[in-house]
Specification:
Elements lengths: L1 E2 L2 E2 L12 E2 L7 H14 L6 H14 L3 E3 L2 E2 L2 E4 L6 E11 L9 E10 L5 H13 L2 H7 L8
Helix pairs in contact: 1-2
């Protein structure tokens, strides 16, 4: 909905079941990014998968988006994104994402944002970070039964 000139989006509007994988079994940061980008493409948010993957990797080179507590929120903003979106993965066995707390990542959300003057990815990042601080939300998200309905 719109409030003034700012557009607010609900997290649920940015993700589909096709962009969620609750059983990812990869061990490296590069593999995690590749898998998350493939899920993003299934969500219909990117028009150039290779360019988008490069954007995400470039952002990671600036500093890890492994924020700690087993969570990573990589993101990319650019012309290869046709509309804002999120893909999500649960990594049951964990994977090294060079997180700030040096712990393995078990939950990853990838954010895609188009290259425009609105920094929608910052708003989504803020909302997602707030949700992920809630342990009950994290536990509920990772339960497969919630996604089979």
């Amino acid at each position: 909905y719109k409030e003034g000139r700012k557009v607010f989006m609900k997290i649920t509007d940015l993700i589909s079941k096709d962009a969620i994988d609750l059983n990812v079994n990869v061990t490296t940061k590069k593999e995690l990014i590749k898998k998350a980008v493939e899920l993003m493409q299934k969500n219909g948010n990117i028009n150039n998968i290779d360019e988008y993957e490069k954007l995400v990797i470039k952002r990671e080179e600036e500093g890890s988006t492994g924020i700690g507590e087993g969570i990573a929120i990589p993101h990319g903003k650019g012309d290869s994104v046709s509309k804002p979106g999120i893909s999500a993965m649960v990594i049951p066995n964990g994977a090294d994402f060079e997180a700030l707390d040096e712990k393995n990542v078990n939950l990853l959300f990838l954010i895609a944002a188009p290259n425009n003057k609105e920094n929608i990815h910052l708003e989504v990042l803020s909302r997602l970070s707030t949700l992920l601080m809630d342990k009950k939300f994290r536990e509920k998200f990772t339960q497969k039964s919630n996604w089979t309905k």
